[in-house]
Amino acid sequence: MSDLASIGKRAKLASRHLASLTASEKNEVLRKVADAMEESGNVDSIIEANALDLANADKNNMSDGLKDRLRLTKERIHDMAEAVRDIAELTDPVGVTLETIERPNGLRLCKTSVPIGVIGIIYEARPNVTSDAWSLCFKSSNAVILKGGSDAIHSNKAITEVIRKAMDSCGADPDGLILIEATDHETANRFMQLNDYVDVLIPRGSKRLIKAVVEHASVPVIETGAGNCHIYIEKTADIDKAVPIIFNAKTQRIGVCNACESLVVDRDALQKLVPVVEKLQTREVVVFADEDAYRVLESAADKDDADIRMELVKPASREDFYTEYLDYRISVKTVTDTEEAIAHVNEHSTHHSEAIITEDAAAAEKFLNEVDSACVYWNASTRFTDGGCFGFGAEIGISTSKLHARGPMGLRELTTYKYRIYGDGQVR
User: Fold this and answer.
1) Are 145 and 178 in contact (CB under 8 A)?
2) Distance CA 255, CA 57 (A)
3) Measured at the alpha carbon of residue 108, what is the angle toward residues 104 and 114, in degrees to the nearest 5?
4) Residues 304-327: pLDDT tens digits?
5) What pairs with residue 4 in β-bridges?
6) Which residues of 148-179 are buried (b: 16+ CB within 10 A; e: fewer)?
7) Domain count, the chain
8) Fewer CB atoms inside 10 Å of the end CB: C or N, the chain?
9) Cβ atoms within 10 Å of 184's Cβ, excluding its own
10) What is the pTM of this model?
11) Closest CA to 395 of 367, 376, 375
12) Are 45 and 163 in the same domain?
């Protein structure tokens, strides 16, 4: 435990230093880091490190969706640097007076935003999380301890080295960012018990990872990430809206937590499923359909006016409706009405992002009100669940928890508050 305790102590000390930095000082560091990430030598070293991770991914038969999350290019590194610059432009969330209360005895209570302290993040094959997490934590004056997986260890080390060197050159304590380089499960489990130093843990990754953190951690946990996201085609759905929304939500990026994994279709709208599947099959998406949906697609395939390839349509199992595929796969469930659709979504979702496609405002409001997920859409893609799309800048993750934060976790969600009380000799 000694190495982890040392890391925790260093991060705790750094968090106190970060809390003393002004907004302009933090912004200067952020811009310096962004520039350093785009220096040609640093870009080359990051891409070389990422190539080692991608080679290991091929050896380990990693899925295409996860490899897409893992892969770094010059363009993606530029996007990472731009995300850091965007954070520098946002309003500082620390030191904001949230509420002032004047008591009858003359006490004045000021509820003020403050950093959480030390944030621990456990994540998988997404090296961009390294810079996103650091920039958000740094802007909100928090130190961060990162524990990535073995899949991205070379990439994470290279990115961390660039950030720490740039921080040090600006006089900011580089221990505001510490990467745990050991990738074994025992180290991860011990990290989850680091209550003396870590204030909150945020897991980012698969449902399996999040479940493991929740079960083993004694440090408070904010659940994020797992996304079995649904789109419901209600009977009045406009097919001209449904096709591009579903195609975007499923295929724009398959390895992200806000991608659509499940379709729910009114029985009276099953024929509208045909053009949706035709479009999905242009990207070789495999459809796992329940009995009613399978029969409609099979019938359409037998007709000359539909282009349905039944080799890409499979019977759905019960497990399919609980699955976050992160792949070119999608499940289809037939329901009788909006009530049943809501019940199906609430039972099978990970409470991340869901959407309804309908022209019936009453059905839409019922779905928006009764679906128990962090983000619920009417006639829009689930892919908008993102800190940038919400105007928060890069996010630390998408919280599916109900306590402290829910949905995209931006800067405000990385602060807590304290009461500053001003008196003039009052006693109780």
Assistant:
1) yes
2) 15
3) 145
4) 677 899 999 999 999 999 999 989
5) none
6) bbebbbbbbbbbbbbbbebbeebebbbbbbbb
7) 2
8) C
9) 9
10) 0.81
11) 375
12) yes
Q: Assess whether 215 and 73 both reside in one domain.
A: yes
Which among 231, 266, 229, 202 is positioned nearest to 373, based on CA atoms? Answer: 229
Task: Answer for the pair 354, 377: CB distance below 8 angstroms, yes or no.
Answer: yes
pLDDT at residue 75 in the model: 96
Q: Is 46 helix (H, G, I), strand (E, B) or coil?
A: helix
**Averaged pLDDT, 32-51:** 97
Question: Rounded CA gap, 162 and 29, in Å?
Answer: 12
Torsion of CA 277, 339, 320, 395, to 10 degrees: 90
Q: Which domain holds residue 296?
A: 229-384
In-domain check, residue 391: no
Q: 287, 300 in Cβ contact below 8 A?
A: no
3-state SS class at 416: strand
- pLDDT tens-digit map of 269-299: 999 999 999 999 999 999 999 999 999 999 9
What is the rounded CA–CA span in Å between residue 65 and residue 285? 13
Beta-carbon-side half-sphere exposure of residue 253 (alpha carbons within 13 Å): 13
Count the helix, strand and coil residues of the chain and give each as a percent rounded to the nearest 5. Answer: 50, 20, 35
CA dihedral 179, 181, 187, 188 (to 10 degrees): 50
pLDDT of the residue at 1: 40
Q: CB–CB of 210/223 below 8 Å?
A: yes
**Interval 53-73 mean pLDDT:** 90
- Is residue 263 within 8 Å of residue 233, measured between CB atoms? yes
pLDDT for residue 82 is more than 70: yes
The answer to whether 356 touches 364, Cβ cutoff 8 Å, is yes
Do 102 and 75 belong together in one domain?
Answer: yes
Residue 261 pLDDT level (bands cut at 50, 70, 90): very high
Mean pLDDT of all residues belonging to the chain: 94
The CA-based diameter of the chain, rounded to the nearest angstrom, is 88
Sign of the C-alpha dihedral computed for residues 177, 180, 183 and 188 taken in this order: negative
CA 109 – CA 419 distance, rounded (Å): 6
* C-alpha to C-alpha distance for 236 and 363, rounded to whole angstroms: 9
Q: Which long-range contacts (CB under 8 A, 24 or more apart) does 336-341 make?
A: 336/266, 336/267, 337/266, 338/232, 338/234, 338/266, 338/363, 338/366, 338/367, 341/232, 341/234, 341/264, 341/266, 341/367
Return the CATH number at 121.
3.40.605.10
Is-contact 213 222, C-beta < 8 A?
Answer: no
Backbone angles phi, psi at 288, to 5 degrees: -100, 100
